[in-house]
Each structure stands twice: as C-alpha cells, then as structure tokens.
What does this fold into?
Amino acid sequence: MREQQTLAFDHNGKVAFITGAGSGIGRATALRLAAEGAAVIVADVNAEGAGETVRQVHAARGRALAVHCDVRDRASIAAARDAGLAEFGSITYLVNNAGLVTMESLDELTEEHWDLVLDVNLKGQWLVTQEINPTIEAAGGGAIVNLSTVESMVVVSSKGYAQVHYNASKGGVPMLTKALAVELARKNIRVNAVAPGPIATGFVSLEGITSPEAMEFMSQRLLIQRVGQPDDIAAAISFLLSSDASWITGIQLPVDGGWLTR
Ligand SMILES: NC(=O)c1ccc[n+]([C@@H]2O[C@H](COP(=O)([O-])OP(=O)(O)OC[C@H]3O[C@@H](n4cnc5c(N)ncnc54)[C@H](O)[C@@H]3O)[C@@H](O)[C@H]2O)c1
It folds into this structure.
C-alpha cells in the first residue's frame, strides 16, 4: 500500500452522487471526497458493499448515504437521486464509476454479455447523467467525472484475446464525455473522464492483477513499476471535480503509470 494520502482539494458544501461506490475505485473516491468535505451518495446494486463504504466514511467522521441504484434502470436511478436529495438537499457532483467486464474471446462472447457490458458501462453513464444533471443545474452547476480506461484507446490482451465488448463500451466514454461537456456547459456543469491503467481492485481478480505473472506482463508497459491503487484514481477524480479544475472540461485524463506513453 502507498503512504497515507495527502488531501488537497476543498469539497466543503458539495454533495457527490457516486455510482458503483460499494467497492474499489468508487469506494476510494467516496472516502476521499468525504474526507475533503463532501457528503457522498453511495449508489450501487451491491447493498452490502455500499453499506460497508458508508460505514468506513462514518468511521472517518464523514457524511454518506447508501442507496440502491442500477445504472441500467431509469426508475432506480431517479429513486436513488431523490433519496440523496432528501438526505443532503442538493447534488453538485456526479461520478459515473459503475462498470463491469466479462472475460470472453470474440467467439465465446454472447449477446447477453455484450448487452450487459454495453448497458452498464456506456448506456448507464448517459442514463445517470440524464437523470442527475438537472439537479446539479438546480444547485447552480457542478462537475461530472466518467470512468474510462486505457482500454478505450488501446487493446490489452493479457490472456491472448481482447474483450471486444469492454473495449467498445469504454471506447464510447471519451466521446460521450466530450458531447456531454458541450451540452452541459450552458448549465455550468463541467464533464471530464479519467482513464485508469491496471488498478488493484476486485474488478477482474485482485489476486490475478497482483500476481508475479501479471506484473511481468504489465512491467513491459508501465513506466512506473507498480500496479495502480484505487487512491491514485480517487485523487484525479477529486481534482477534476474541484474548483482547481474550473477551466477543464471535455478531456480524458489517463492515470496509468505511463501505460499509454509508448
Ligand atoms: N480496476 C481496474 O483495473 C480498472 C481499470 C480501468 C478502468 N476501470 C473502471 O473503473 C470503474 C470501477 O471499477 P473497479 O475497479 O472499482 O471495479 P469494482 O468491481 O471493484 O467496482 C465496480 C462497482 O460497480 C458496481 N456495479 C456493477 N454493475 C452495476 C450497476 N448495473 N449499477 C450500479 N452499480 C453497478 C459493482 O457492484 C461494484 O461495486 C469501472 O468503470 C471500470 O471499468 C477499472
């Protein structure tokens, strides 16, 4: 693990709606934003994970609420938003973080898994943004960060095959981000994306990503020779949401240990 994180950005008075915050990068983002003064709405299909995130935020004396939210379901998103509004009174930030992948080669990939991955990773970001952005506008504006990946730009085939559905879903995120930035600028809402490299979460398998075999594969790409931690991504998200990034919109920021450099 890395040394204790330095808190740098002021989110006092802000309220963040974070999808997929019951685990991994979403949980680290909830903890970081709460430590920097925001109230966090922990939105996830995994009630147990969301509850644990809230427990950790409360233990650190932050403000958090767990809400059930399936990013594929408009009614579920609206109910989660309304529960968050009832608790905290406004929403100023959105982090479209919920995501998943299934590991299959082209020939094994089913239509069911194609639809699942596209619906959660790409359609879900649009649907949640459509439901939440009027609330951010009503608060006077704010910011949105979408979770992308280096795999929106390059194919990583550590097992000898790509995940074509995952690449396609995340390939849409930088352009969705630009289009949303154009649409929402008039509402005083900035929209950016973060593109992580390999991060130690349970996304695929924590053991897998931290194994010597995985490190040997990754070391050929990484300039900074370690797997990324959820806190590395939370720091970038915190910056892009903050007023320190008030002149940044429409970008995708790689946070990848140099993966995309060569
Ligand atoms: N871990 C990595 O190496 C990595 C690299 C690049 C990008 N990312 C992206 O970062 C984001 C977070 O990934 P993570 O590594 O923290 O994974 P994770 O599996 O730890 O967390 C994902 C969370 O999303 C939730 N989720 C899944 N489907 C959902 C749905 N329909 N509605 C609401 N919530 C749902 C899960 O319950 C889980 O809590 C994802 O978008 C992922 O694509 C991860």
